[in-house]
Specification:
Elements: E1 2-4, E2 9-10, E3 14-19, E4 21-25, H1 27-30, E5 36-39, E6 58-59, E7 64-68, E8 77-82
Antiparallel strand pairs: 1-8, 2-7, 3-6, 3-8, 4-5, 4-7
């Protein structure tokens, strides 16, 4: 599924960002209090690894999006990669 990512959203699933960027907090997963910027995934033939080379492009279930895009008009889209117990 392709979803529009919005600010102040607690993520129910793992998502791969395909357009735009986000600032999120992963403190619920990692304990790290500093917000992290996530970017859209490049169009590449590399194998996608959510915990490896794809971490900077992945929004993880249980984290909160603090800001989606730079302005309110920015479109941030992502593809659902995992749900339920299959999330990272």
């Amino acid at each position: 599924d392709l979803v529009k990512v919005r600010s102040n959203w607690m993520l129910p699933c793992d998502l791969l960002i395909t357009e735009g960027s986000c600032i999120c907090t992963e403190s619920g997963l990692t304990g790290e209090p500093v917000p992290i910027k996530k970017y859209f995934a490049p169009n590449s033939l590399d194998v996608y690894m959510p915990r490896g080379n794809g971490a900077q492009h992945t929004l993880f279930a249980g984290t909160k999006v603090l800001q989606a895009g730079v302005s309110d008009d920015d479109a941030v889209q992502a593809v659902v990669t995992a749900t339920g117990v299959a999330t990272s």
